[in-house]
Amino acid sequence: NAGVMQNPRHLVRRRGQEARLRCSPMKGHSHVYWYRQLPEEGLKFMVYLQKENIIDESGMPKERFSAEFPKEGPSILRIQQVVRGDSAAYFCASSPPRGQGKEAGTGELFFGEGSRLTVL
Amino acid sequence: LAKTTQPISMDSYEGQEVNITCSHNNIATNDYITWYQQFPSQGPRFIIQGYKTKVTNEVASLFIPADRKSSTLSLPRVSLSDTAVYYCLVGPNSGGYQKVTFGTGTKLQVIP
Asked: Cα separation of A8 and A107, whole Å?
């Protein structure tokens, strides 16, 4: 069972370009979360999605950032018109549906290895 | 969500037992205590979770006193590969929805 897959692992963009980060959750997981980590800081919650639904996007910046988790395919975090302050590691995590799987009892999150965005 | 406080960093020699304490004075009745480990350039990894008393697994032990206002993660006989950042999280065990901020964690450096 493959883990959470994120790509690209590294992405370089110039100011004003768009960045698209993709996340494929673990097989059987229907919950996806995106976190951002600035250097030497902890992870900050951005958004929580289920298939075709944004459940909680309270951690997302109001402008330029959007996320989706379509019925088919990976979840995508999109950053439009990137600025230098967007440079960070973006982590995706997934978890099984509520009440399913042994991990559901602990609420354990399974993280990908992250996508590191550098804005020049 | 209950706020947590943990040391910014710790050093330990190989083979020693390491105890990392987390304070969570405002923990709620339905809150659980969860610890994650993060290696450089990787995503966090779940280590252990508990509600009260003591929990032990193949990786660590978690000690929680009766008042639950703090908890201690214990790593037995650490090795160099245990060098990582350790995060203490407190929140409801909601079976999937974890809107939490990990904080800065405790950076553990294991010295040969």
From this structure: 27
CA distance A101 to A13: 39
Q: Is B102 on the interface with A (CB under 8 A)?
A: yes
The percent of chain B in helix, strand and coil, each rounded to the nearest 5, is: 5, 50, 50
For residue A66, the SS3 value is: strand
Q: What is the pLDDT of residues B33-78, one digit of tens each?
A: 999 999 988 999 999 999 998 999 999 999 999 999 999 999 999 9
pLDDT in tens, A30-65: 889 999 999 888 889 999 999 899 999 999 999 999
Residues in a beta bridge with A11 = A117
Q: How many other CB atoms are there within 10 angstroms of residue B3's CB atom?
A: 12
For residue A95, give the nearest of B97, B26, B5, B93 by alpha carbon.
Answer: B97
**Among chain B residues, CA nearest to A49:** B97
Q: Among residues 56-85 of chain B, which lie with CB inside 8 Å of chain A?
A: none
Contact yes or no for B32 and A107 at CB 8 A: yes
Partner A contacted by B105 (CB < 8 A): yes
Tell which of A21, A54, A98, A106 to mutate to test the B interface (max B CBs under 10 Å): A106
Reply yes or no: is the peptide bond before residue A39 cis, omega within 30 of 0: no
Q: Are B37 and B84 in contact (CB under 8 A)?
A: yes
